[in-house]
Write a structure and sequence with these properties.
Layout (H helix, E strand, L loop, with lengths): L1 H13 L13 H7 L12 H22 L11 H22 L1 H10 L8 H7 L11 H12 L3 H4 E4 L5 E2 L3 E8 L4 E7 L3 H21 L9 H15 L2 H14 L6 E2 L12 E5 L4 E2 L3 H6 L4 H19 L1 E3 L7 E3 L5 E3 L5 E3 L2 H16 L2 H11 L9 H14 L9 H12 L8 H20 L5 H15 L8 H32 L9 H35 L3 H30 L1
Parallel strand pairs: 5-10
Antiparallel strand pairs: 1-3, 2-3, 3-4, 4-6, 7-9, 8-11, 9-10
Helix pairs in contact: 3-4, 3-9, 4-5, 4-6, 9-10, 13-18, 13-19, 14-15, 15-16, 21-22
Length: about 600
């Protein structure tokens, strides 16, 4: 056993094992080389320069978004392929720009990578690649923060402290140390000036969120202010290491009876708002298959264990790890699954569980109305006057994509279908829901790399059935049960009809009920009249600019004449475009 542990330890070092951090070990030379890469990492980085950098990015992005819809901006003519290629290039540019802008925007980008219900697939795919590997800060700053927060110097607190960080992330960096009692620990120290950076950045982001919320096209069906508030909450929670310590303790208690799960212990005596000291728990990353095989670990068991532990968190504990990517999961020499990094955690409230169960019942019965109503209660669907389009989309999905057995379906495919329906519809999935779906998809991907035969839904099936049966759902209900349910539904509708009629009449009397009548022919005539009036204005401008150009040429003011001629040409171009648009409207 001892020799096996040594072999695993050696393999762990060789394979860049995770050390209670989001990123892997990086060399001191690469840390030093990266210090000059980002302006925000400089000591003399001013507030005004920060504001300029952010606003330059925002205005450039708005210009690029505006340009996307202009067909004349495409060289060689507009095509859907060119539009898609331009969007893909812009997604890459956004990812690189967020990395340049630093911690706040890196975290916001990572959060947005879960929102496929709001952003195009190209953006989500690129933002999911966003890694927060950033330059480390100096040991002198580390020592100053430790002394300021813990009240004693590094030398007084620790028997040894490695000045070279094991890893550096956007919010902080990790150092290996040893306590005077002989225990090996890792010390996570927050990046200096982080709160100042957050305060500046979030103030600007709030203005941007308001702009997008009020935008006639980008604000429709989107709760940008709500998304901003959610981002603020998550960012400040991640910057609070006391909160992360509490999360780690809660998570550790939830799995204290599970011998196959290992969670690092928090050393509260050496922990503060900006310093977090954890037990040093080495392991092999779940993505390093050769090291796992060499250590004699059964990868299929680890894949299943990862899925089971997450279902336990989600369905029973109501407290789950919101970022279970391969960097946060490792395997100990004894085959235990190790969890790292508890800054981003999710909680499922009781009413959310009830509404999720209602959604599951609706899916099991293929009832579009039941699923729709449960999604409204969840806050995943904005209550709008006309939900017929969304109801048809949900029913179509239930009828066409739910025919396969539960255990043969893919989480990634189901989430893609959900996000496809949600995009450009009045959906606004709660952050908890998107975290769960991303975690499911990530775990399914990790499981398949560990074991090609792994199926997350097959593991989840007994949990889902047990939960549904405990809440009163019978998978084997008879024809009479179904008739009884429908009869109860009809009687409920019939009994509620007088009340609904009374409410409608009451609204009519108070003037709260509004009727909207649309005449297509009248709309067409009014649109054409408006177009003709605009065309008349263009004609007057063309005539005025042409006459002005002629007069200037006669007086040999050639430069001004050219300017007037260009203005006349621009007006003529706009007039021709208007004529084509009027013709297209008539054909429609």
């Amino acid at each position: 056993m001892l020799s096996r542990n040594r072999a695993v330890s050696a393999l762990s070092e060789k394979s860049n094992q995770p050390i209670n951090a989001k990123v892997t070990r990086i060399s001191s030379s690469s840390l030093e080389a990266g210090k000059k890469a980002y302006r925000w990492n400089r000591e003399n980085y001013s507030r005004n320069r920060r504001r300029f950098d952010i606003w330059f990015f925002v205005l450039t992005l708005l210009f690029k978004l505006w340009l996307e819809g202009k067909k004349w901006s495409y060289i060689g003519g507009y095509t859907e392929e060119k539009k898609k290629a331009r969007r893909q290039a812009r997604a890459v540019w956004i990812r690189e720009s967020l990395l340049e802008l630093g911690p706040t925007f890196i975290k916001v980008g990572q959060l947005f990578s879960t929102r496929a219900d709001i952003f195009p697939s190209e953006y989500v795919e690129e933002l999911s690649k966003l890694q927060d590997r950033v330059p480390a800060f100096d040991y002198e700053q580390v020592a100053a923060i430790v002394k300021e927060d813990l009240g004693k110097s590094v030398e007084q607190l620790f028997a040894s402290f490695d000045p070279t960080p094991l890893a550096a992330a956007s919010l902080g960096q990790v150092h290996k140390a040893q306590l005077h009692s002989g225990e090996t620990v890792v010390v996570k120290v927050q990046r200096p000036g982080l709160k100042k950076l957050f305060t500046i950045d979030l103030a600007i982001l709030k203005w941007i969120a308001r702009y997008f919320q009020n935008h006639p096209r980008w604000g429709k069906g989107r709760d940008w202010i709500g998304i901003y508030d959610e981002c603020c909450r998550i960012l400040w929670e991640e910057a609070d290491y006391l909160n992360e310590g509490r999360n780690a303790d809660t998570f550790r208690r939830n799995f204290q009876t599970y011998e196959r799960v290992r969670v690092p212990r928090v050393y509260w005596r050496y922990t503060s708002l900006r310093v977090l000291t954890l037990e040093f728990v080495p392991g092999i990353k779940v993505s390093h298959h050769e090291a796992l095989d060499a250590a004699g670990v059964d990868r299929s068991i680890i894949a299943r264990l990862g899925a089971e532990t997450y279902l336990q968190q989600l369905l029973y504990d109501g407290f789950f790890h919101a970022d279970p990517h391969p960097g946060n999961l490792a395997v100990s020499p004894e085959g235990q699954l190790i969890f790292y990094d508890f800054g981003m955690m999710g909680r499922i409230q009781g009413n959310v569980k009830d509404n999720l169960m209602e959604t599951l019942f609706g899916i099991a019965e293929k009832s579009g109305d039941r699923v729709l109503n449960s999604l409204v209660k969840l806050g995943a669907l904005a209550p709008v006057e006309d939900t017929s389009a969304v109801r048809r989309s949900i029913q179509y999905m239930l009828d066409n994509f739910m025919d396969e057995p539960f255990e043969e379906q893919s989480v990634a495919e189901i989430s893609d279908d959900l996000y496809e329906i949600a995009y450009n519809n009045p959906f606004r999935f709660p952050a908890t829901f998107t975290f769960v779906m991303r975690a499911f998809s990530t775990l399914e991907g990790v499981g398949k790399t560990l074991d090609p035969e792994f199926n997350f839904m097959a593991v989840a099936q007994p949990y889902a059935m047990e939960l549904m049966n405990s809440n009163g759902y019978d998978n084997n209900k008879t024809l009479f049960d179904e008739i009884g349910r429908q009869a109860a539904s009809m009687s409920s509708t019939a009994l509620g009809l007088p009340r609904r009629l009374e409410e409608t009449i009451d609204k009519l009397e108070k003037g709260d009920l509004r009727l909207r009548v649309r005449s297509i022919e009248s709309d067409r005539i009014l649109r054409r009249m408006s177009g003709i009036q605009l065309g008349t204005n263009y004609s007057l401008l063309i005539a005025a600019f042409t006459i002005s150009a002629t007069i200037l040429v006669v007086n040999e003011l050639i430069t001004l004449a050219v300017i007037m001629a260009l203005a006349a040409s621009a007006s003529a171009f706009a007039w021709i475009r208007l004529l084509k648009r009027l013709d297209r409207w008539d054909r429609m």
